[in-house]
Amino acid sequence: MIIVGLALLAIGVADLCAGGLGGEIANARKAVLAIATALITATIGLCTLTTAEPMTAVIVLFMVTTTSLAWSLLRLPRFRAKCPWLAVVALVAPLGLLAASSGVLNATAAASAMSWLADLPFPSIARLGLDRLSLTVGAAVALLATANGVVRAVLATAGTLEQSENRLRGGRLIGPLERLMIFGLALAGDPTAAALVISAKSILRFPEISRAAGGAPIAPPESPSPQPKLSEQPLAVDAVTEYFLLGSLTSWMLALAPVLLLHR
Asked: Which of 68, 74, 107, 145 can bridge 50 by disulfide, Cβ–Cβ 3.0-4.6 Å?
């Protein structure tokens, strides 16, 4: 699990440095920055936290670099407009392969890192062990900008991003906070509290969804007056609701996925 945690940490830090909290890669220079940051972060993590064999280290660094390369380049505007779903595949597939092969790759926790962890004045954190702690920290960092990038790619694939993003403001900040809360509560064994967070968001977002629809009626009026052009019509409530539901469901799945790995 320590390898998966380092990979998530490297990609999460890279996305934060290159794209900010929104998880956007605006140009090729930002993509290069993300790739370099991921490689440097993974290298530092392998050298300080593990005693990985040279071949294992090379494989991990190669996987992290190629994943960051594909994930960053496929989010550039020229590629995102054509096939936004490819970016999600380029991110999820290598990470899934790395998680599946983590038991084969020989990377044990370094003695110095274990000693540092044992000396922390927080017994509950020390009891986690370095494997679980690295995965927890890596997942928490990845749930910020990287998860925002995944949600944006999914919304763009469904065609609901451009027309609804400006109507429901604050999602780039609400999403990471919501994912961290759900992740932490589920990890602490309190799924009821996590469900309450989900319910509260749905209730609190309802007035905003209604305002974003511009008061558009759900059913067309019966009057024979000519209908305005499609570009002049206010955004229908079902379009904003689709944006909200799809983005929220994707965000919740991302928050709960690391919990399944930690409970294996």
From this structure: 107
> Interior CA angle at 140 toward 53 and 5, to 5°?
10
- Token pair for residue 238? 């079902």
> What's the average pLDDT block by block, 10 residues per block, for the chain (264 residues)?
89 92 86 94 90 84 94 87 86 88 75 80 77 90 93 83 56 82 85 74 61 49 47 52 80 88 76
Give pTM, 2 decimals.
0.81
Residue 221 lies in a domain: no
DSSP state of 227: P
Token couple for 66: 């190629």
Residue 81: inside a domain: yes
CA atoms of 74 and 87, how far apart (whole Å)? 5
The CB-side HSE value for 181 (13 A sphere, CA atoms) comes to 16
| Residue 62 backbone phi and psi in degrees, to 5 | -65, -45
Q: What are phi and psi of 109, to 5 degrees?
A: -70, 140
Cβ atoms of residues 49 and 179 within 8 Å: no
Residues 120 and 1 in one domain: yes
Give me the pLDDT at residue 11, please. 95
Q: Would you say residue 38 lies in a domain?
A: yes
Q: Where are the beta strands (DSSP E) in the chain?
A: none
Helix, strand, coil proportions of the chain in percent (round to 5)?
Answer: 75, 0, 25
Structure tokens at 92: 């999820």
By residue range, what is the domain housing residue 261? 159-216+232-264
